[in-house]
Amino acid sequence: MTISKAAYKAKLSDSIGNYEDVIQILTESSDFHDSSLRLLLVGSLRNRITSLRTSLRTIKSCKEKLDPSDLSKGLTSVINEICEELSKLIMDESEDVIRLIDDNILMYCNDHDKAFCNKLKGDLMRYRAEITTGSERSSNIKASVAFYEDSLQLARSCTEKYPIDPLYLGTILNYSILKCDLLNNPEGAITFINRALLAVKESNETLSPQSEQLIKILNDNISKWEQGSKNLFTSAFF
Amino acid sequence: MTISKAAYKAKLSDSIGNYEDVIQILTESSDFHDSSLRLLLVGSLRNRITSLRTSLRTIKSCKEKLDPSDLSKGLTSVINEICEELSKLIMDESEDVIRLIDDNILMYCNDHDKAFCNKLKGDLMRYRAEITTGSERSSNIKASVAFYEDSLQLARSCTEKYPIDPLYLGTILNYSILKCDLLNNPEGAITFINRALLAVKESNETLSPQSEQLIKILNDNISKWEQGSKNLFTSAFF
Asked: What region holds the 14-3-3 domain (chains A, B) (predicted)?
């Protein structure tokens, strides 16, 4: 594989979790040779925000474990303080990554790569919606919907991959989670998934292991949602 | 468990990898109630440095994978640059943690806890020795030896735990790695381990699962060293 110095540094920096350097290199260097590496790195930046989101959920869940003596000592305020810090990080870093995609990544993308980027932006806007309220939350949901819709449309246009494309199915999965969790519409989410699964069936194509796994998760989610369990965290990490 | 606000914040910060806050709280607050939590947090800070050391080894190992065309593009300099950054982080952070132990932790320690702290300091000095040269390396090795020796002496004085104490056996393990890898003395390391294993045998005590695991690693290391394999990375993380 031919790789430039900057791309190599970004790759190594990513492997040791030095995301500041990854962002800097992606912003400053156009000399990547290999475009798939760029997308891999942006995906990794999104994963970092996903792990902040996991931390936020972990800390929030600590609230339920506090007993009355903890409450009197003000431990709730400690939790709230950390939650605020994590929320701020999620807001700031998601903004950085979205800006990076818009200013430094999309220009190198073919349609399928653009679908990937729009899915990432949809995911990030969904995370932002989860931690905001009122009109800010509404506009984050709206933006997430728009990015997921764009991603699906672009992925559908790649006719040699659609409808069994893992990227397409992953977008269906994450978008359906938004429909269920944030738009409060499990029935709509189920119908939406079923339509995608029907297209897969009708295509008669051989599935990759990744697509098979996604279809399993989609079916599992339908079962859970039909049983009324809404708090579902499985989503697609690519 | 009764816990102070500061201790609770440190615990949550540790759980989400916010080590700056952990260091700050351990430095500024004496209000921990629970001393074992203090040690847990310092151990976690050491683990963070251990993971920097793992990153450094990963990046160094990339050098061997470079082909001639990579070399001509100057990719070696990228690796060297990242290795320098990681080495600097290891040096800076180990210094911070050792200072924290000396100024803010030892004062609350009984002898067994002091043995734990000295083992940590021995580990950190060993990491520093690995990435320094000349007289700096020699003095880091010397300091590591002194800390491990202190730890063993303190652990031996806890007669109700010695010689099957996991902390004691973990110190034997890590100190033997220093003897083999940095003092270049595998025979000495083997003799040293065998003496500790003999004391375990003669004690006729029932072993905890942790001690049993350590004894297995110690025996594995002896086998590998007897076969002349020196590059052994298994060590005790507590």
From this structure: 4-231
